[in-house]
Design a protein that fits this description.
Tscrpt_reg_HTH_GntR; 13% strand; 16 helices; transcription; alpha/beta
């Protein structure tokens, strides 16, 4: 076994050693069952520390290239072929078309309709610093379970943040979750039963639709307008059905980018009182708020609104930290289900988020995001108009623009997009029944990429007669 490590290059020695060993095995110079050099022998021959060899071997064991035999050493593992890639599911036919954004094989494409910010927009330095602080802190934050309601220090910080939004919620009214999707799952399983009926916005959040289907809950679609959900449609549905809940994005709705007006908000609360309706307000884009905004939770005096939010969009999707606000009786039921189904949330992740809230680094990073998103939003709206696109509504903030090219269907847009290495999210993914649509969700954070610019310009051109 002969190879050399580059001590002047940027790659760590551990990674170089791992790569060389894996390449050696992959080229079948080492057969399954072959024994590798001892830790001490390989460290001596490569002039590295024993810990470097141990970590390289451990990485190869974890990835299935080696197996460790206690007291004997490390041996080449028998590698079995993995299952074939599942490419049989057509795009959008299952009603969860956006799942394609997460599948392998599209890494080279620009995901113009995705639901997250670019990694280089995130507060990576501040997040890494918070992780280091927590790692050097109290041992229980690394090893212990989280309390049922969530970490007390985080809930205290959330209480302060909610007060700034005009939402009166003490720490005892706050429950932490594994992101907003976990919060929705807890609520659906606690509040609803198979056969129940709910109101959902259309277009709306595809994952909510799928969750409700999983629990056999009947959905009644409410068209989303530029001012919020269509009040006339809601009044008709309330008069003819008995829905248990309304699920709504008040601010920067996904996918249309529209926000609730005060007039619509007050009428929704009146209807909720008249028809004994609970409202689940998903405010996942709350921290993108720039200027005044209307939230149902700030106007609710009868505790009919269950408020939800998350740090996935602004801070990190990997941390999976969200929260919801509800009355104490419901919160107790939710906390019990949370413990039964998952034994709580991540104490470490909640400590990291709490650290960033307490030291102000999260607030500063979100301020930078708002400015950057606002600039990109204004620029993209002008470019779409010049290129001949139709915009559903000019959002006052957030990440998304809902737009289409008159006369073009999704298939023709997708063809143009592929020619420019762009992956689209179709409007059908945001319809509760997956109905085909010419509308597209565009994430403004990716709109200035050269591939996006070329696609928008070419797609907006008149079709040849």
């Amino acid at each position: 076994m002969h190879f050399s490590l580059d001590r002047t290059g940027p790659a760590p020695l551990v990674q170089q050693l791992t790569d060389h060993l894996q390449a050696w095995i992959d080229q079948q110079r080492l057969r399954p069952g072959a024994r590798l050099p001892s830790i001490r022998a390989l460290a001596r021959s490569q002039a590295v520390s024993a810990s470097c060899v141990i970590e390289a071997y451990d990485r190869l064991v974890a990835s299935g290239w080696l197996e460790a035999r206690h007291g004997t050493g490390f041996f080449v593992a028998e590698r079995k072929p993995g299952p074939p890639a599942d490419d049989t599911q057509p795009w959008g036919e299952s009603g969860d078309g956006n799942w394609r954004q997460f599948r392998e094989g599209h890494d080279e494409l620009l995901k113009l309709g995705c639901g997250w910010l670019p990694s280089n927009w995130r507060a990576a330095t501040e997040l890494a610093q918070a992780v280091r602080q927590v790692s050097r802190g109290a041992p229980q934050d690394l090893f212990d379970y989280c309390p049922p309601l969530g970490l007390a220090s985080l809930r205290q910080q959330l209480h302060k943040r909610l007060a700034q939004l005009g939402i009166a919620a003490g720490p005892e009214h706050i429950l932490t979750t594994h992101g907003a999707s976990h919060g929705l799952d807890l609520l659906v399983r606690t509040l609803l039963r198979p056969g129940d009926t709910v109101l959902v916005e259309n277009p709306g959040y595809y994952n909510l639709y799928n969750l409700l289907r999983q629990h056999q809950v009947h959905m009644l679609p409410v068209p989303r307008t530029a001012e919020g959900p269509d009040l006339a449609a809601i009044e008709t549905l309330l008069a003819t059905h008995k829905p248990r809940c309304l699920f709504i994005n008040s601010l920067y709705q996904n996918p249309t980018g529209t926000s609730l007006t005060p007039k619509v908000a007050y009428r929704l609360l009146e209807l909720a009182r008249e028809h004994d309706l609970r409202i689940v307000e998903d405010d996942i884009y709350a921290d993108f708020q720039e200027g005044p905004a209307t939230r149902l939770a700030t106007l609710d005096s009868e505790q009919r609104v269950i408020y939800m939010a998350s740090f996935s969009k602004t801070l990190s999707s990997s941390l999976r930290v969200g929260y919801l606000v509800a009355d104490p009786a419901l919160l107790a039921r939710l906390a019990e289900l949370k413990m039964v189904s998952g034994i709580g949330t991540s104490r470490f992740a909640e400590q990291v988020v709490g650290q960033m809230l307490a030291n102000g680094s999260y607030r500063k990073s979100v301020q930078r995001l708002r400015v950057r998103l606002g600039q990109h939003m204004a620029k993209l709206l002008g470019q779409l108009e010049q290129a001949g696109w139709q915009v559903f509504c000019e959002p006052c903030g957030g990440m998304f623009v809902w737009a289409r090219v008159p006369g073009r269907d999704f298939a023709s847009l997708e063809q143009v997009a592929r020619e420019h290495a762009v992956l689209l999210t179709p409007g059908s993914a945001f319809d509760y029944q997956g109905t085909p649509s010419s509308w597209l969700r565009i994430n403004v954070a990716y709109g200035q990429d050269s591939r996006a610019q070329a696609f928008l310009q070419h797609a907006g051109r008149p079709l040849p007669s």
